[in-house]
Amino acid sequence: MWRYLAGGTAVIALIVAGFMIFSGKARPGPLLPAQPVAQIGGAAIASDPLPDTAPEATDKTREQKRFDRYDKDRDAKITREEYLVQRRKAYARLDVNGDGTLSFDEWAVKATTKFADADRDKSGAMTAPEFATTAVKRKGPFRAKCPPPQGAAEES
Fold first, then answer.
1. Which helix (H) or strand (E) covers residue 101, if one does?
2. Mean pLDDT, range 24-49, rounded to an integer
């Protein structure tokens, strides 16, 4: 008998919950906090107003930006010297003893250091968990920090 009573109560509770959901009475609160408002001369003005127009994006493509990074003198041409500047800097960082020649140990210093750091037990070989620490850590996708939409504060 008590099972019929519990079942009937559950059915009534589901009907009431469905009615509340579909009638629009059960609405979540605002997702963002309300913006602070300052009173100036009796009129409410937002303390941090948004600009009237959106900022303009540059027309440069990714390749044009890359070209500009290499073209240091801005003459619309990349000379051999301009092209090799980054390679020279990288070479100088690798040439630890500064003799102008790059030995294999100098060239492989990053890999050698990475191996030594990963080989925790200093056995000269990496186990699977040690090897897992050598994986390249990738950055997440770039996300622009945009202000909240204008209508978000007005909805509450």
1. none
2. 59
